[in-house]
Amino acid sequence: MGFGKGCHLHLIDGSAYIFRAYHALPPLSRKSDGLPVGAVAGFCNMLWRYLVENDASADAPTHAAVIFDYSSKTFRNEIYDLYKANRPEPPEDLRPQFPLTRDATRAFNLACIEVEDYEADDIIATLARQGREAGGRVTILSSDKDLMQLVGGGVEMLDPMKNRPIGLEQVEEKFGVGPDRVVDVQALAGDSVDNIPGAPGIGIKTAALLINEFGDLDTLLARAEEIKQPKRRQTLIDHAEQIRISRKLVLLDDQTPLEFGLDDLEVRDPDPEALLGFLNQMEFRTLTRRVAEKFDRDPPPLPEAPAPEVAAAPEPAGFDTTAYECIRDMAVLERWIADIHEAGFVALDTETTALDEMRAELVGISLAVAPGRACYVPLAHTVGEGDLFGGAALAEGQMDRDAALAALKPVLEDPAVLKILQNAKYDVKILARQGIDVAPIDDTMLLSYALHGGLHGHGMDALSDRYLNHQPIPIKTLLGSGKSARTFDKVSIDEATPYAAEDADITLRLWEAFKPQLHRARVTRVYETMERPLVPVLAAMEMAGVKVDRDVLSRMSNAFSQKMAGLEAEIHELAGETFNVGSPKQLGEILFDKMSLQGGKKGKTGAYATGADVLEDLAAEGHDLPARVLDWRQLSKLKSTYTDALQDHINPETGRVHTSYVISGASTGRLSSTDPNLQNIPIRTEEGRRIRTAFVAPEGRVLVALDYSQIELRILAHIAGIDALRDAFREGHDIHAMTASEMFGVPMDQMTSEVRRQAKAINFGVIYGISGFGLARNLRIPRAEAQGFIDRYFERFPGIRAYMDDTVAFAKEHGHVETLFGRRIHTPEINAKGPGAGFAKRAAINAPIQGTAADIIRRAMIRVPAAIADLPATMLLQVHDELVFEVDAGAVEDLVARVREVMEGAADPVVQLSVPLVVDAGQGANWAEAH
C-alpha cells in the first residue's frame, strides 16, 4: 500500500519506551543465565498492548515504525561539545538490554530504525515531514517536549502512557507559544537536562513573553536594545551567539538521510513463530502465553538447557593506574630501553598539544612492555602563563627533551623491535617531526579494522570498553572543555602519568587480544599487505601536503562575492522588491505568496519549503528567479566551504594544506579525507572546478593526476561474469553506449546523448543497488519507466541479478561479504526486517565491488613509493580512484609510465582480472589542469 492521502503513520519513540520500561519495573533477570531483561520485558508488554489496542481500533495506523537513538553522540556534539554532557551514563544492567529491544521490535514485525550521527527525534521529524507532504496523517507516540515543535499540519502527538493527545492547545499550554515558535522559546530558555545553555536567567515563561512580543528569535536579537528591563536586555546582547547555538541544538533536522521510503513502513502482522520464539528465548512466560492464545498456538516449552551465552567482554584484567612509573632521569629510561630490547616489542603513545600533527608539540611519551607495566616520560609540561612557544616555564622533574629523544631514537628505529600503536599514523608523524623514523609498527586500530570492519568503530576507548571491559580515564577530566579547556602541556605531571601510561597499557593488551585472531579470521593478508604498509605511505603524503595559492582563493572569494551581489540584484529585480536571499522563509513568501508559483508547501513552522529540489522543479518550469537563487546558493556554498575555509587550513610554516586520511572510517576500505576534506571538492560545475586551480605546483614542477577509468564497473563485469561488459572493456568500447545499445536496441552509430545518459545512470546506479524510485529521481522520469529500465537491464545482463542474489545469500549465511582480496566487510543488519533490510542488502551487494576497488588503489599506493624513489616526484593526494603527484617538469613522462604500470597491475598476482584496468593521466600547473 503506497503512502498517501487516507494513510495514517505512527512514529513510536522507542528510546522513551525503553527508559519508561526500565524505571517502571523492578529488576528482572533471565533465570537460565542471569541476563538483565527487565526493560526488555516492559518494552515487549508496551508493544503488545500497542498492537492489541490498534488491532481493535477504527483509527489503526496503516504504517508504523519504532525509532531509536543510535548512540549518545550526534552531529550536535560537533556544534557544541558539551551537548548532553551532564547526562549520566545508562545503568550497567540497562546497557545489554538496548540491542535486545531492537530484536524485540523486529520480532513484533515493526520497522526498527536508527541512524548514525542523528537522534531519534531527527528521524521522527523527517518521517513526520514526509508523511505530511505525502498527504497522510502522522501521530507521534511520545510525550517528549522536544517533539512538540512538529505538531500541526496533519502531525499530532499522543502520550502513550496516559493515552492523552498533545495538540496545538497542549503545546501552547506547555510553552506559551504555538509549535512554530517552540524552537525559539527553547533556544532562549535552554535545557539543563540536555546541557543547552540558552540565555542565563531566562525561563520558559519569560522566553514566551519575549517571543510573543517580538514575533521571532531573530527579530528579538536584532532589536534587543529595545527591551526595557536592563538585566534582560544585557543578557540577550551578551549571549546572542550562545542563544543562536542553542537554537541549532534544539531545532530538529527534518532532512535526516534515510535509506527507505514511507511505503516500507506499512503495518504487517507479526510472524507468530518468530515472535513466540523471541519471547520464549527471553523466558517471558506470561506474555508468551498471551501471544500464543491470541494466535491460537500452543506456547512453546521453555528451553531445558541454559540459553545460549550472550557474548560478553572478558573480566577486567586488573588496571592499576597507580602502579605506572614516571620516568624523570636517564638511568631509569635506559633501564626501560633495555627491557624493551629484551621483550622485542613496546607499546607506544605520544601526548601532544593538538590534534593537528603538523602543528602539535610533543609533550611526553608513554611506553608499555607487559600488561600493567607501563610508564610515562614527561618532556615539555609547563607552569605559569604562556605556552610552549614562550612565556611559560618548564615544570620541574622532567628529563631534557633532546637527551630523552636521542636515547629513545635507536630503539624506536630498531628493526628488531616491534612498535605497537593505536592509530599509528598520528604518532609516526609526531615523531617524524622530531627526526625519529618509527618502524616497524603494528596498529591496534587497523588490527580491529581488519577483523571487525562494519561491526563497530575502532577508537581506543571503544575497543577498550568492548574487548577489555575497561573504560579509560577520560581526557576531559584532564583538559576540561569549552573556554576553560587547556592543552596537555598544562596538565600536571602527576595527573598526566596515569592517563598517558594507561593508553600504552591498553594498546598493548588490545594487541595481545587482536593479533592472534588474524590467522583464525583469515584476514592476515589484508592486514599485512594493505593496512599496515599503508600507514607510512599516508604519513609521508600528509606531511608533504599540497601547495595552495592563497591569492587565488582570495580572488575567487572576492569574485564569488561580486557575482553573488550581482545575482542578488537580479533576484531583487525579478521579485520586484528587496529581501534576504539567504532566508528560506522570505524566499518562500516571494515565490508562493507574491509570485503565486505552483508547488508551495508549508512546513511545521508555517514557512514554505524552498529546498534545492523545490527550486530545481520551479527552474525546470522556466522560472528565472528560483534558477538565480540556485546559482546564488551554489556560490555561497563554494565560498564558505572552500575558498574561505581553505585559506585557514594553509599551514603558515609550509604554505601547504595538510589533509589527514582516515584509514578505518569506511567498512569497505575506502579512505576518507578530513581537516580539510579534499575528496569532496566539487568538479561538476565550472565554479567548483575553478577551486582546483588554487592547488598548484611550485615553480619548475607540475601536478600530475592518474585515475582509474570506470574501475567499479570493470570489477562488476569481472565478479558477475558479464561477457558483454567484459568484451566491451577488453575492446575499449564506450561502455555506456554499449549498454544502451544492448538494452534499447539502438545501433551504436545512431546513439543519442540522452539514451547514453540513461544507460550511464543505470550502469552506475546498479552498483549501488539503486531502486526504481532513486533512478526516477536521477533521470527525472516516471517511477514506472525507471523501474522498467532496471528490469530490462537485469533481463539483458542476468549475471548481475545472480551476483546480487548470491552475495545477499552469502551475507545472510556468514554475516559478512568479502572483496576479491579477502577483506571482510561485516553485515550485522543483513537479516533485519523492515526498512533497514533494503539498505543492508544494497550495502552488502555494493561492498565487494567498492571494497575491491579500494583494495586495488591501496595496493597501488603501497607500491608507488618504491617505483618512483629515484624520481624528483612526491605523491600528494588520493581521491578515491585518483592519485595526484608533484614532479619536476622534466620527469613527467617517467612518472606517468611508472605509476601507470603500478596502478594497472595492482591486482596482480593475487587476483587475475578478466578485464583490463585502464589508467588515465593528465598534467598541469594546477590540479584543475591535471585532472
From TrEMBL:
GO terms under biological process: DNA-templated DNA replication; double-strand break repair
EC code(s) of this entry: 2.7.7.7
Gene3D superfamilies membership: 3.30.70.370, 5' to 3' exonuclease, C-terminal subdomain, 5'-nuclease, Ribonuclease H-like superfamily/Ribonuclease H, Taq DNA Polymerase, Chain T, domain 4
Every 3'-5' exonuclease domain range: 324-519
CDD domains: DNA_pol_A_pol_I_C, DNA_polA_I_Ecoli_like_exo, H3TH_53EXO, PIN_53EXO
Origin superkingdom: Bacteria
Family membership: Belongs to the DNA polymerase type-A family.
Function, in words: In addition to polymerase activity, this DNA polymerase exhibits 3'-5' and 5'-3' exonuclease activity.
Subunit and interaction comment: Single-chain monomer with multiple functions.
UniProt protein name: DNA polymerase I
